[in-house]
């Protein structure tokens, strides 16, 4: 990593780092990004890497070390989940450039990418060094200007990375400007620390606690030079030691400003700064006619009441809407929502809020459905069942069987039941994953295994990579279908 002043080279045990994780802290300008770049360059040929880059600082690694740069602004949230899964399957090092997205999108896109890496099948659990720069953006200690949904999914993904990622080969390296802004349950999972220059008392106190130092020693963090860090951890050293980070081969494209000779402008300054601002020619404003005399308020109310009574007397009474017609309208609204590709990737509470807004616009009232009835309607809509099949006795039996399952599985169960009742080909893992709201085919296989363990379905091979799905007791069975794809 560099050198210990007066003590030789400073080394990091990469194997130990993969098992124990790393936390880097330092104020802006302390050399934090330089440290991460040094770590990435030194280990690029040894281990697969994934960099969550909110500012586009690390895209230059692609030219020197062959990293794939993913411009997140050009892709959907679902595509990020698939990219996280595929980069592990194909063992490619990736820089996820989140530049150009707002804070809410950065959190959700990063969470989707981390989720894809986390949910791959066990076959692809190869070691990956996952570097998250500006980690306080993705694991904030308190609510900020972003939505609660974005903060929840991002914090959950970061917690999974630091708490449960080791068994899946994911080694988290998180860097933050301020420890006080980073969620404690995320920071506490690191066993290696590189603490740089910081000035705020609360950050110095937390850094001292993590390093096992006394509070009176915390002020020493103010005296650290740029590019110098206090190191501790099984992958670094057993006692706190000063480390000066070495040189790097690549450069950030967003380097800070440098001093340059100052040359005053050649033209007179007052002509440049105080030049007249062009004034747009605005059309002449039409003069208003004087207001008509306002009648007495009581007279207005009386006239309005009489006019309304006459209109009600002339209008025919509206035909009351039946429950079936009302449910049909709500089903149509829900099907229209699910036509959006991103809808399959949104959680049920988010879809529920969108559904209520659309129902109000359609005149169905402010509280058209409660959450429980919405989940049942959502499961039926995701199954893709037609109106003819939905009134059949087989479909009523399928809905009865689905009612005993967890709410998040009912849509998948009805989707499979519809394919079997209509005698279609067995759905692929990709189709099942989409109905569930993910792009992880591994999760789709686990759902099928869960249904088989409870003696609800049976999967049997049909040759050439195909399979047949049958429902136990109901007698429904699909045609042979390809499992993958």
Automatic annotation (TrEMBL):
<dbReference type="Pfam" id="PF01935">
    <property type="entry name" value="DUF87"/>
</dbReference>
<dbReference type="InterPro" id="IPR027417">
    <property type="entry name" value="P-loop_NTPase"/>
</dbReference>
<dbReference type="GO" id="GO:0005524">
    <property type="term" value="F:ATP binding"/>
</dbReference>
<keyword id="KW-0067">ATP-binding</keyword>
<feature type="domain" description="Helicase HerA central">
    <location>
        <begin position="9"/>
        <end position="62"/>
    </location>
</feature>
<dbReference type="InterPro" id="IPR002789">
    <property type="entry name" value="HerA_central"/>
</dbReference>
<feature type="region of interest" description="Disordered">
    <location>
        <begin position="302"/>
        <end position="327"/>
    </location>
</feature>
<keyword id="KW-0547">Nucleotide-binding</keyword>
<protein>
    <submittedName>
        <fullName>ATP-binding protein</fullName>
    </submittedName>
</protein>
<feature type="compositionally biased region" description="Low complexity">
    <location>
        <begin position="306"/>
        <end position="316"/>
    </location>
</feature>
<dbReference type="InterPro" id="IPR014588">
    <property type="entry name" value="ATPase_Atu1862_pred"/>
</dbReference>
<dbReference type="InterPro" id="IPR008571">
    <property type="entry name" value="HerA-like"/>
</dbReference>
């Amino acid at each position: 990593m560099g050198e210990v002043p007066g003590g030789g080279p400073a080394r990091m045990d990469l194997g130990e780092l993969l098992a124990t994780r790393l936390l880097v802290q330092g104020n802006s300008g302390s050399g934090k990004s330089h440290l991460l770049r040094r770590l990435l360059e030194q280990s690029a040929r040894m281990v697969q890497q994934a960099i969550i880059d909110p500012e586009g600082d690390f895209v230059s690694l692609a030219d020197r070390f062959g990293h794939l740069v993913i411009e997140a602004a050009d892709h959907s949230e679902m595509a990020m989940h698939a990219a996280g899964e595929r980069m592990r399957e194909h063992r490619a090092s990736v820089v996820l450039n989140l530049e150009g997205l707002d804070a809410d999108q950065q959190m959700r896109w990063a969470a989707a990418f981390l989720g894809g890496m986390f949910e791959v099948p066990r076959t692809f659990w190869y070691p990956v060094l996952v570097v998250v720069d500006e980690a306080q953006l993705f694991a904030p200690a308190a609510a900020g200007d972003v939505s609660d949904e974005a903060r929840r999914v991002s914090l959950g993904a970061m917690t999974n990375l630091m708490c449960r990622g080791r068994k899946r080969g994911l080694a988290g390296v998180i860097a933050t400007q301020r420890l006080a802004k980073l969620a404690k349950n995320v920071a506490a999972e690191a066993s290696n620390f590189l603490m740089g220059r910081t000035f705020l008392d609360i950050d110095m106190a937390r850094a001292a606690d993590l390093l096992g130092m006394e509070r009176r020693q915390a002020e020493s963090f103010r005296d650290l030079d740029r590019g110098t860090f206090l190191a501790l951890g099984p992958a670094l050293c057993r006692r706190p030691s000063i480390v000066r980070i070495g040189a790097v081969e690549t450069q950030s494209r967003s380097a800070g400003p440098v001093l340059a000779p100052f040359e005053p402008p050649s033209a007179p300054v007052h002509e440049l700064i105080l030049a007249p601002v062009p004034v747009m020619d605005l059309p002449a404003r039409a003069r208003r006619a004087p207001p008509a005399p306002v009648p007495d308020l009581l007279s207005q109310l009386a006239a309005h009441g009489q006019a309304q009574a006459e209109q009600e007397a002339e209008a025919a009474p509206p035909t009351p809407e039946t429950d079936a017609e009302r449910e049909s309208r709500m089903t149509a609204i829900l099907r229209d929502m699910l036509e959006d590709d991103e809808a399959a990737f949104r959680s049920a509470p988010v879809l529920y809020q969108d559904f209520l807004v659309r129902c109000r616009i359609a005149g169905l009232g402010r509280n058209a459905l409660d959450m429980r009835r919405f989940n049942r309607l959502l499961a039926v809509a995701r199954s893709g069942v037609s109106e003819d099949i939905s009134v059949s006795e087989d479909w009523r039996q399928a809905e009865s069987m689905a009612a005993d399952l967890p709410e998040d599985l009912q849509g998948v169960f009805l989707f499979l039941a519809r394919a079997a009742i209509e005698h279609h080909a067995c759905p692929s893992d990709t189709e099942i994953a989409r109905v569930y709201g993910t792009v992880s085919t591994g999760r789709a296989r686990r759902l099928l295994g869960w249904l088989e363990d409870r003696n609800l379905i049976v999967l049997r091979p049909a040759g050439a990579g195909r399979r047949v799905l049958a429902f136990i007791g109901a007698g429904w069975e699909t045609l042979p279908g390809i499992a993958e794809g």
